[in-house]
Amino acid sequence: MSSLNASLAIAVSGLSAEQGALEATTNNVANVNTPGYSREVPNLVSSDPIVVDPLTLGTGVTLQNIESIRDPILESQIQQETQTENQFSTLASALQQTQTNFTTSSSDIGTEISNFFDSINQLSTSPADLSVRQGVLTAASNLATSFNSTANNLTQQQSSLDLSVVQTVGQINQLSQQIAGLNGQISNLENVGQSAGSFIDQRQLAIDQLSSLVNVSVIPSDNSLTLTTANGTPLVMGQQSFQLTTQLNAAGLHDVYSQQGADITSELTSGQLGGTLQARDRQIPSIQTELNTLATGLASAVNGVQTAGYDLHGNLGTDLFNAPTAAASAANLSVAITDPSLIAASSDGTQGSNGNAEAMYNLSTEAVINNQSPTAYYSGIVFNVGNATANAAAEQSASSLTLQQLNDQRASVSGVSLDEEAANMVQYQNAYAASAQVVTAINDMMYTTINMSTLTT
Amino acid sequence: MRVNPNPLPDLIAALGQTQQQINTDLNQISSGTSVAVPSDDPASAAELVQNAAQTSSADQFLRSIGSIQGEVSNADSTLNSVITALQQAITLGVEGANGTLNDADRAAIATEVQGIQSQLVSLANLSYQGTYVFAGTANQTAPYVLNGSAVTYVGNAGTNSVTLGNHFTLQTNLPGSQLFSASGSDMFQSIQDLITSLQSGTGIAAAVGEVDTASSYIDSQRTFYGNAENQLNTQQTYLNSDTTQLAQQQNTLGAANLPAVITDLTSEETSRQATLEAVAATTQNNLFSYLKG
Question: The whole model's pTM is what?
Answer without folding.
Answer: 0.86
